[in-house]
Amino acid sequence: MKPAILTLLVLLLTACATSPLGRHQFVLIPAAEMDEMGVTAFTQMKQKEPTETGTRQSRYVTCVANAITGVAHTGEHWDVVLFKSKEVNAFALPGGKIGVYTGLLKVAKTQDQLAAVLGHEVGHVLAQHANERLSLQYATQTGAQLIAIAAGGDPGQQQTLLNLLGVGVQYGVALPFSRTQESEADLIGLQLMAQAGFDPRQAVQLWKNMDAQGGAQPPEFLSTHPSNASRIADLQAHLPRAEQLYQQARAAGRSPHCG
User: How do the domains of the chain map onto residue ranges?
Assistant: First the structure.
């Protein structure tokens, strides 16, 4: 048996994982490799996009992000960068990287709404959603191709890596993951923001803001993302538990004041 095939078979046998919400997952890529890819992608983004540092806005974004990652208990320092762009977007990557676009701040109008976005993005990382996407690619393509992509070099391969990791610059804070992953990240993010002391009710308001932002949306069954109405209904259904976590956080002294 060829070594590459044998390696793939071993990986397939050890690919079972469970998301923070109990969903069974197909995860092949070692965490250290995912972190390395995340760092590579983040470096590429900083090289391509203008950033804003040392400003009131950048300090504000960092403050909210630090509050969220502080309750994520990943055991690592998270780098936070504010990108100067009109895009309404944000992302988080394995390896402790967070990017926020200035355009998002016109839709996420309060620290609690921004916390809902960043909780969602960190939720993608905690649930290994990028790993799921890459694992599926690995299972259907050659491992050598993915290794070449991760190594960088060719611009087309670099863009493929960014897309697989979910750093697509597009309208909306939601990244191009499946509806299942998006809904899962919504609920993980709701829990994180509440545990950090942000008002979870503002997650619902955020998506109302997104809905009011306008733009025709495709039918949900044709989209990789849940509709805004579906997201709002799902978040509202989980608000009672989130509000309990919020009250516990406030009682414990977690009361962010990021401005």
Answer: 15-251
